[in-house]
Write a structure and sequence with these properties.
2 copies of one chain form a homodimer. Chain A is mainly α and 478 residues long. Chain A has 3 domains: 1-41; 44-203; 209-477, Phosphate transport system protein phou homolog 2, domain 2 (Methane Monooxygenase Hydroxylase, Chain G, domain 1). Chain A has 18 helices and 2 strands. Chain A has helices spanning 2-41, 44-64, 66-72, 77-86, 91-121, 126-145, 149-171, 176-203, 209-235, 254-257, 260-264, 267-277, 292-313, 325-354, 360-381, 390-422, 437-440, 452-477, and strands at 356-357, 426-427. A two-stranded parallel sheet of chain A has the order 1-2. In chain A, helix 14 runs antiparallel to helix 15. The longest helix of chain A is centred in the first third of the chain and has 40 residues, at 2-41.
Chain lengths: 478, 478
């Protein structure tokens, strides 16, 4: 038995060694696939890498040539460090970090020079003690400041370079005039490196954090809208052409049904982008004081929507067999509600993207609210005599979640309207106004329902009352 | 009119100047309040700041003294930079960044030396061109690697220092032996700075990322449990003593009802901590290969729970007036379900914290599942004859959400059981086993319900069937 085990072990080791080239090959293939994906997904990332390479080699060669080297000496290396740390993907991040870096360096240089001077006045024995105390205090205080959430998010690099520069200058064992010269060199190299970054970042294929944030928020709304559309199609088994879909037929693309998951955890990326968007000067359609806070609010409510969708998703697997009359009518209205909501979100997303405002999203909001109203009145007038509550629980939950989503969408629409007013969105009158609801929504056919005519009558009844309310509502809203 | 305007403007300016000391005072007071809060909330943050101050002043003074200075020259400054960048709050982060920093420096030094040697062989004209090409390529490639999400999360500092060191060494205009000496100095100062950080971080009041992660996951479960308890008390207006609560009475502490909001966006902090926990050696109750992935999974499902709670929270404002018989019974069972779930979460949280496993959480899970079963059978046997569907929709949604929460909690309990098996939790037999449900749950009194005796009979009926299932279930589970 033992020899068998040893044999197996040997085979295992040999097998692993033989498999090594394969594993390495797979790793390499995996990395190259990832590289291609990233490059294809956003070619600006490749351009960014080339920009960084360019600025670092520029600054390095500047250091390489002897005349310049003699002027700056080893301090010239600081230009390279500055470029490496400061140069970021977006203009806002580069500007923010550059400003941080410069302010941190200048402040620390001034303080460090003061500390050095004070310590050198106090005599040979007290000098190292005083310097030690200064460095200790400054380092401890600045490390503590890094725990403040706002300071960490905005000024982290500034604080880091502050500590480095301060201890560098206060500790240096030179005489005052030498220290001054060193400070001068240190500051000029920093300024050279920093301004090289900022110039290249702004003037060669700039990537603006504000623009990224703007499109990411618009994308979020479209993703949520697509989800609601896909949900309606999946849940009610209706194909895009509005026909009742066979259960065995191709189901909706699963990736659309999982898109909202990216929205769930988008808070940190929103905050990251807005932090840098605030540093950016006006560019293109965005002014310096663009109302980024409104975008943050839209982002927050779209996350609320995504939470509801996460809950909603649990009800996708619910089966529609054995529908009762009431359930069938509720489903019809839910389908309409989700399709209207989906249209609102998609249109708001595209109107943010293009910065044009069409009135049709408002009409869709009004439509969705009308459906909510008629749904509520339907529910109020019905009681489930023919069906048990357990088989109603899923559809009731779905209804309630969809109603909540409509409320959130109304809030989003209000915020986008505010945004349109403040930033003067172009008003688009040419867009075709939405058709009346009844013809527009794909008709949901309760195939399993026993009494078809009765069911249709009920739907028509509800539709009529709906349209009646719709007219009066529209006159208030428009 | 104009002079009035000018007067007003003057007054405005004067007013602002007069208000300046007040504004500054308020700012200062705000900052000192925040400082006190952070220091009180986690005194280890103060200790960390002192540790950083200590190590930087140690390394600085090491540079200050002439004999050492003569050995290392300006390179000694790298020790300070290393400490500032590498020293982080947790041991894992410090170790990870230290390793990154060291590997990045060594790798870049070797490559840089090679590039320098190669370029110097190629003659005076080709040298700067070759060096420029090398630096450009390395810088562009490494900048692109920073877009890989995994590389960014784990090796960002390593990549940064790689570019800096590489261009520093390949560019330097010295002869080969001088470069070798410089590389030697650079590496020794880095190692000195890095090991100072790691030593101080591990041996003086260490803060372990793994421990932080462990407790943060346990805390999350407790927060969610507290929420469910508070939800039950708030929704069913029952005080902690199990009595029906007056609407005007003190409501549950609002902060508990909003605690779950911190769980919603905890994904990034979870991933941040687990990244560093993986670098840490065994410490205390945690071995080197502690199953951190299980914690990540528990964290993910607790976020799912939090999403449900966010949806649930919308139903808090629902009023309990005019309850019907069915609704009253459903509410009774929902109350039990949420209290049992809350107990499961609280116990799982505390059993992770203390790393002891008591069987009572399993019993509570079984109880919650029994309540779900009896709730489902109650719903199956009921239809709403006396009440319209609209007034049922909120309670039905709540029921459905609570049922979903029970499912998630079951998954969490399974994961915690796995964790307990793998990491050998201490088994606690002394804990009092939970009392039978009927006496334990605060009795929900449907004060407004018309027919009290009928209602009670129904509850007792359900309770009996519940207990019957409970016994058989327990025998399977235990």
């Amino acid at each position: 038995m033992e020899s068998q085990n040893t044999n197996q072990e040997k085979e295992g080791v040999v097998g692993r060694v033989l498999a090594l080239p394969k594993v390495v090959k797979e790793k390499v293939l995996g990395i190259s696939r990832l590289t291609k994906e990233i490059a294809k997904d956003d070619p600006r990332k490749v351009i960014h890498s080339i920009k960084v390479g360019l600025s670092i080699s520029m600054v390095s060669l500047f250091y390489y040539y002897q005349p310049l080297y003699e002027n700056f000496g080893l301090s010239a290396m600081w230009a390279v460090i500055t470029v490496v740390v400061v140069f970021d993907y977006t203009v806002g991040a580069t500007l923010g970090q550059g400003l941080n870096w410069t302010v941190g360096t200048f402040g620390a240089a001034a303080l460090g020079f003061g500390a050095h001077h004070l310590a050198s006045l106090s005599g040979a024995t007290a000098e190292p003690i005083l310097i030690g105390v200064f460095v200790f205090m400054l380092a401890a205080i600045t490390s503590f400041i890094r725990f403040f959430p706002k300071a960490k998010a905005r000024y982290d690099y500034g604080i880091l370079i502050f500590i480095v520069t301060f201890s560098f200058i206060s500790v240096s064992g030179f005489r005052d005039n030498e220290v001054l010269e060193m400070v001068h060199k240190r500051l000029s190299t920093t300024v050279i490196g920093g301004s090289a970054c900022v110039m290249i970042s702004i003037f060669i294929c700039p990537v603006w954090a504000g623009e990224e944030f703007h499109y990411s928020i618009a994308n979020k709304l479209e993703i949520l809208g697509d989800y609601l559309e896909a949900f309606a199609h999946e849940y009610f088994k209706i194909s895009k052409e509005g026909e009742f879909k066979d259960n065995k037929g191709d189901s909706t693309d699963k990736s659309v049904l999982e898109g909202y998951k990216n929205v769930l955890n988008s808070k940190s990326s929103d905050e990251y982008l807005v932090n840098f968007a605030r540093w950016e000067p006006g560019h293109g359609k965005f002014k310096f004081r663009h109302p980024w806070d409104l975008y943050l609010q839209i982002g927050a409510i779209s996350r609320e929507c995504a939470y509801q969708m996460e809950t909603l998703n649990a009800h996708l697997s619910f089966d529609v067999q054995g529908s009762s009359k009431i359930r069938c009518t509720i489903q019809e209205l839910c389908l309409e509600m989700s399709l209207e909501s989906s249209k609102v979100l998609q249109e708001l997303g595209s109107s943010i993207k293009t910065m044009t405002m069409s009135s049709s999203s408002n009409t869709h909001v009004a439509n969705a609210k009308v459906v909510v109203k008629s749904l509520k009145s339907l529910l109020q007038s019905s009681s489930s005599k023919e069906i048990d509550l357990l088989s109603l629980i899923s559809i009731m939950t779905m209804t309630s979640l969809l109603i909540d989503i409509v409320e959130f969408i109304e809030k989003i629409a209000d915020l986008v309207n505010d945004l349109a007013t403040i930033t003067h969105f172009h008003i688009d009158d040419t867009s075709k106004s939405p058709k009346p609801k009844s013809s527009q929504s794909p008709h949901y056919d309760c195939a399993e329902s026993g009494n078809k005519t009765n069911n249709l009558q009920l739907i028509i009844l509800v539709e009529e009352s709906t349209l009646a309310v719709s007219e009066s509502e529209k006159s208030i809203i428009v």
